[in-house]
Amino acid sequence: METTQTQSNGVRDQTERIANIKQRIRYRHTNKIYIDLRQRGYNDDQGKIDIADLIQLDQWHYNGTEPIQMAIDKIGIGEGDKVLDVGSGIGGPARFLAHATKCDVTACELLPENHDIGVDLTNRSGMGNNVTHVCGDILTADLGEESFDSIMSIQVFFHVSNKAAVYKRCFDLLKPGGAIYIEDFYRMKDINREEREVLTEFLNSTDDMVTMTENKCLLEDAGFTVVEMKDFSTSYRQYTYNRWADWMNNPDKYVQLYGQDNYNGWLGQASTTKQLCHDFGVMAGGYFVARKA
């Protein structure tokens, strides 16, 4: 009876965690990828997808494939390497990484909707031999110990409250000599009341948005040696403005394509990030390269 109750509590805790994460990232509109594919002539639920077409549509972070190529270059990902993608979403970065380098990627994603779409797109694009999808929490998912040559994560860890635990888990999952590449959002300065309200709208908890210096300390506390870090404030400022302007200035186009609810959701997200990165300068992107001795 005690074991059954413990399992039940674990399932409930995971369900609540997923619900909280969904709220934090304003998670919805996963059907956008299928709408975009439909515009390229693909069916929603069957038929092969050309990986070259898919790569142009499934990079839902900033600046397309550039961050993944940066990870390849900075930590030296090559053919046959075992790579973990933490917070893999619908699998775009994992598929590009495997396609570009012929490495083997484990794509770990917490949210079941993202995971299911990722599996479908990976199978239909012929990438199933190189990309394995795992649905679960990075802290508890069965991924093996010290089994990865490299770890990559793009715009994920800013959602996580307990970064110390996640970084320690990543450290334990790496082989000796392995490296991690992280691109994420970071707080650039102290925030005033108006900025805090907008940041809370974006993240729910402003306390979880660390500075790059604070993040460096968290990585080092987990055992990593940070070998490179750089902020992308100029790039993120321009990207968020351009994305907002595109959605703001083309409502007829996007409402016709995605529907009013989709349009409102994507415009709301673009408006908030434009305020934080472009107008206020309170938030920007940056990357870290860190190694395990």
UniProtKB/TrEMBL annotation:
<feature type="domain" description="Methyltransferase type 11">
    <location>
        <begin position="84"/>
        <end position="182"/>
    </location>
</feature>
<dbReference type="Pfam" id="PF08241">
    <property type="entry name" value="Methyltransf_11"/>
</dbReference>
<dbReference type="InterPro" id="IPR050447">
    <property type="entry name" value="Erg6_SMT_methyltransf"/>
</dbReference>
<protein>
    <submittedName>
        <fullName>Sterol 24-C-methyltransferase erg-4-like isoform X3</fullName>
    </submittedName>
</protein>
<comment type="similarity">
    <text>Belongs to the class I-like SAM-binding methyltransferase superfamily. Erg6/SMT family.</text>
</comment>
<keyword id="KW-0808">Transferase</keyword>
<dbReference type="GO" id="GO:0008757">
    <property type="term" value="F:S-adenosylmethionine-dependent methyltransferase activity"/>
</dbReference>
<dbReference type="InterPro" id="IPR013216">
    <property type="entry name" value="Methyltransf_11"/>
</dbReference>
<dbReference type="InterPro" id="IPR029063">
    <property type="entry name" value="SAM-dependent_MTases_sf"/>
</dbReference>
